[in-house]
Amino acid sequence: MNILVVGLQKDGRLLPASFELLEAAKGLGGNVHTVVMAENAEEPAKELASRGGGKVMAVSDAKLKYFNDEIYAKVIRGIMDKVSAEVVLGPATFYGKALFARLAALAGAPMISDATKLEKDGDNVVATRPHYGGSVVSSLVKNGEGPFMITLRPKVYPESKDGDGEVVSESADSSALEAKMSVAEVKSESGGAVSLTEADVIVSAGRGLKGADNLGMVKELAEALGGAFGASRAIVDAGWTEYANQVGQTGKTVNPKLYFAVGISGAIQHLVGMRTSQTIVAINKDKDAPIFNIANYGIVGDAFEILPALTKKFKAELGG
């Protein structure tokens, strides 16, 4: 089986999800190939090779500096033919989902989005995927010929740490580098903060914080833990914070190692976006709040007293 992993980068740095994909690919066996595209793809390609990327194809061009799903899809489509890819893996991130939807259409191939597990069953790859907020889980197998396109949910697999590989420089066809849209500049809305979808720790706020002026204490705890700040839809709709911070069915689906839900009651639309977190800590003054039904640990009390105490403790313990 020939497996092609799509390693994505931002500002020349590989996204952590790229190494998670390598771990998933190695678990399937077969021949692992990886492609990475950038203005200068040599350095990220070397890192992928040293961490189990197999034959890593580095495609460098000025037009690949910024993510452009139209250009990226055409370049990857050419690589798929070169390596006779039977399975193509990418991250189920904002960019990854946009890219793979276009790539699947371009290749005329079946696609599974947001898979949480991959297994080998004879000659078939079985992808496990949750539906309806995790209340239904299905096992899906490709039916028919051609490559199988799969995006994996971040933080489900550990990062591949080592492995043998080689870097091969590839050039993209000039027609593949042309697109109807061009990206002139990229500005980060988060201002350098930890990305929600990549964070190991998330501290999210809800209406229990009573107002936008009180979100600072939630962000301070997130910073002390080296984590990201999240928000419920209710406070985003109220204008307390930006949509980019929203966790839930209409926001981002996250899967951190540790999730703090502060002043969040636990509406189903929020739960579907974070219920797969490895450890959930709920802080709410209402002991009957639905969030406690899925929490591993619950603290019933006043967040305005609990958050400063936790922040002080974590700063002391972690040296923050």
What does this structure look like?
- This protein has 320 residues and is an alpha/beta fold.
- It contains eight helices and 17 strands.
- It has helices spanning 17-28, 42-50, 69-83, 94-107, 215-224, 233-237, 268-271, 303-318; strands at 2-7, 9-10, 13-14, 31-38, 51-60, 87-91, 111-115, 117-121, 124-131, 136-141, 148-152, 163-170, 201-205, 228-231, 258-262, 279-284, 297-300.
- Strand 15 (258-262), helix 7 and strand 16 (279-284) form a beta-alpha-beta unit.
- Helix 3 (69-83) packs across helix 4 and helix 5 packs parallel to helix 8.
Summed up:
With 320 residues, this protein is an alpha/beta fold. Helices cover 27% and strands 29% of the residues. It has helices at residues 17-28, 42-50, 69-83, 94-107, 215-224, 233-237, 268-271, 303-318, and strands spanning 2-7, 9-10, 13-14, 31-38, 51-60, 87-91, 111-115, 117-121, 124-131, 136-141, 148-152, 163-170, 201-205, 228-231, 258-262, 279-284, 297-300.
Note the overall shape.
globular
Radius of gyration: 21 Å
| Distance linking N and C termini | 47 Å
Number of helices: 8
CATH superfamily of the largest domain: HUPs
Number of domains: 2
Spans of at least 5 consecutive residues with low confidence: none
Mean pLDDT: 92
CATH class of the largest domain: Alpha Beta
| SSE string, helices as H and strands as E | EEEHEHEHEHEEEEEEEHEHEHEEH
Q: Tell me the major beta sheet.
A: 7 strands, parallel
Tell how many strands the DSSP assignment holds: 17
- Secondary-structure arrangement, i.e. CATH architecture of the largest domain: 3-Layer(aba) Sandwich
**Strand residue content:** 25-35%
Instruction: Quickly give the structural class.
Output: alpha/beta
The largest beta-sheet arranges its strands as 7-11-6-1-4-5-12
